[in-house]
Specification:
This protein has 24 helices and 17 strands. With about 575 residues, the protein is an alpha/beta fold. α20 links the parallel β14 and β15. The protein is globular, with a radius of gyration of 25 Å. The structure holds 2'-deoxyguanosine-5'-triphosphate and calcium ion (CA) (2 copies). One calcium ion binds next to α11. One calcium ion binds next to loops.
Length: about 575
């Protein structure tokens, strides 16, 4: 059984418990275990076989027993029982952004509603506004949430698609009939969500390649099997399309299949202007249909008078013009990152000791790490009071004495209160090496309130960067409607960096906003917001967002050397 299936069951248990009105900590334990298992490198089946489940942080006796039952029998009695208690449609209703378990339970209890269409109708008929704790605004928000869910549903987050894509790719590499192989489509462009995966292969024996492709062991259904194309659905419901072409067309096909559609349309019209015809088989002379180039993408771009354009830039956001003028950015790379400045430890709601985090970071080539635990008012996340901060600073000082060529910074992720003041007074903020601030409660604000809250926070001279600025959760919570123009101007004026949060359901700021902010000369931090060591690898998704936002190395604080960074923090 796949890690993702086990994680899926745990998520559903958490939702069901929420609907039953169980306490926060019980449901949270299931969610955290699910998050951890989802990104685990180890196969959950192996861990069960080797009796090693309890090595996973956050998994105790009771949870280990349930996972074991689920993996060994394919079923979990506890889950089945819960599902019988609660109508299935309520779980679907929980997926509506802005609708929590308390409200869903109340809608069910008072109105007997168990499906989204019935809920939509009830909102339109004005039946919800009279329930306790509801109102006209809630009704409108729910309608908007339903719309949003319809917009994103069926799309898969980058990290999960990436894992599926890599696994399939590694399997296909073993096919000796394949000459060249590449991921394509939105995954090669590292979009934040995928509709489906696209893979391209070149071969003289396309049918044998397709036979090999559909023998993959994670397939639920074969949708289509042609001579040079096939589509399947994986067990986790993600569709994968394979296209097989002759090797001389590999570059042209890769260019076509990588997209985006908008980029391709623009490129094709440029080709026509230049006297060519471009399609997935190659670049052809318009007059006599003679094949010009097609083996590599570079040749095609170059023939059209362009520099090679990295896949992440191919969204028709000015990249073709920039390629013509040789003004494409020199995109930042994962290797440029020298450390992570947004990491939680056991001091607040993270899972590991600072020492373990630091050793892991150092082993993986980082030069520094910043531990940013939550601030005092965030009780649910075990925010730190003054005594705990002092203890943490001491501990970090001691650790730093015993570790060479590496530095641990003591930071904080300080909450910004509703009035824009910070959760610690200046006297305490001064104790940290640096300060990151973010909004974690009090989300109900109009555009002006939200913007003002940030503008005020940025006025505080201790603030170095803003975490996950729009607070969106992809598919679950809409971003704040900020006046970004004002935000970016203030960030520039106060020298406040903005975070690209790498958590796959955040990616916040997103690619578009990053590009706009960069045009205003704003600088960035790429943080992972890790609560577990396995989350540190999310850095790659922050990097892909940065690349999609046209960022170069120098735009990003945590590409700086330890020396340079210390200078900036000491200013
Ligand atoms: P997705 O799957 O929604 O996340 O996004 P993509 O970009 O992977 O789109 P997909 O899978 O429908 O198609 C893969 C690529 O094929 C796309 O990026 C560009 C190319 N393509 C698909 N349809 C068209 C089209 O109608 N015109 C052109 N020029 N290219 C297309
Ligand atoms: Ca696709
Ligand atoms: Ca496709």
């Amino acid at each position: 059984m796949k890690n993702q299936i086990v994680a899926g069951v745990l998520y559903q248990i958490a939702d069901l418990l929420d609907l039953k009105g169980e306490i926060f900590f019980k449901t949270r334990a299931y969610r955290i275990a699910a998050q951890t298992i989802e990104v685990l490198d180890d196969d959950i089946e192996d861990l069960v076989k080797q009796d090693r489940l309890k090595e996973i942080p956050g998994i105790g006796e009771a949870l280990a027993k349930k996972i074991k039952e689920l993996v060994e029998t394919g079923k979990l009695e506890y889950f089945e029982k819960l599902k019988k208690e609660i109508p299935e449609g309520l779980l679907k209703m929980l997926e509506i952004p802005g609708l929590g378990p308390k409200k869903v339970a109340s809608i069910y209890k008072n109105l007997g509603i168990t499906t989204i269409p019935a809920l939509r109708q009830a909102c339109k008929d004005g039946k919800l506004r009279d329930l306790e704790c509801f109102g006209l605004i809630t009704e409108q928000n729910i309608l908007r949430g339903i719309q949003m869910k319809e917009k994103t549903s069926g799309r898969v987050l980058l990290n999960l698609a990436y894992k599926d894509g890599q696994n399939y790719f590694n399997y296909l590499k073993k096919c000796d009939k394949i000459q060249r192989l590449s991921l394509a489509g939105s995954l090669r462009r590292y979009k934040e969500t995928m509709g489906d995966l696209d893979i391209l292969a070149s071969s003289d024996n396309p049918e044998e390649v397709i036979d090999f492709f559909i023998k993959y062991n994670d397939i639920k259904q074969v949708l289509l099997k042609g001579n040079t194309k096939t589509s399947i659905v994986l067990n986790d419901d993600l569709q994968v399309d394979l296209r097989v072409v002759e090797d001389k067309s590999f570059g042209a096909a890769l260019q076509y299949l990588t997209g985006s559609k908008e980029h391709n349309v623009k490129l094709r019209s440029l080709a026509i202007k230049e006297g060519y015809k471009l399609n997935e088989y190659g670049l052809f002379d318009k007059k006599n249909d003679k094949f010009v180039v097609g083996k590599n993408e570079e040749e095609i771009y170059n023939k059209l008078g362009l520099e090679y354009i990295e896949p992440e830039l191919r969204e028709n956001r000015g990249e073709i013009q920039a390629a013509k003028e040789k003004k494409l950015p020199d995109l930042v790379k994962l290797d440029d990152i020298k450390g992570d400045l947004h990491v939680h430890s056991v001091y607040s709601d993270g899972f590991e000791q600072i020492e373990d985090i630091a050793n892991f970071c150092k082993k993986n080539g980082y030069k520094y790490v910043g531990i940013t635990d939550h601030s005092q008012s965030l009780h649910i996340a075990k925010g730190l009071n003054e005594d705990q901060i002092k203890k943490k600073i001491k501990e970090i000082e001691t650790l730093n004495k015993n570790i060479d060529n590496f530095k641990i910074f003591c930071g904080t992720e300080c909450d910004i209160k509703t009035d824009g003041t910070l959760d610690y007074p200046d006297r305490i903020l001064e104790m940290f090496d640096y300060v990151c601030v973010g909004i974690h409660i009090g989300f109900k604000m109009d555009s002006k309130q939200a913007t003002d809250r940030y503008l005020k926070a940025m006025e505080n001279k201790h603030v170095n960067f803003i975490a996950h600025p729009t607070c969106r959760l992809i598919g679950h919570r809409e971003p704040f409607e900020l006046d970004l123009e004002k935000m970016f101007d203030k960030a520039k004026e106060t020298n406040t960096y903005l975070e690209i949060n790498s958590f796959p359901d955040r990616l916040d700021l997103n690619d578009l906003n990053v590009k706009i902010a960069k045009e205003k000369d704003v600088k960035f931090v790429i943080g992972t917001d890790s609560h577990h060591i396995s989350h540190l690898a999310f850095m790659q998704y922050g990097i892909s967002t940065a690349r999609r936002g046209w960022l170069e190395k120098n735009d990003i604080l945590n590409t700086y050397s330890l020396n340079e960074l210390e200078k900036i923090f000491n200013k």
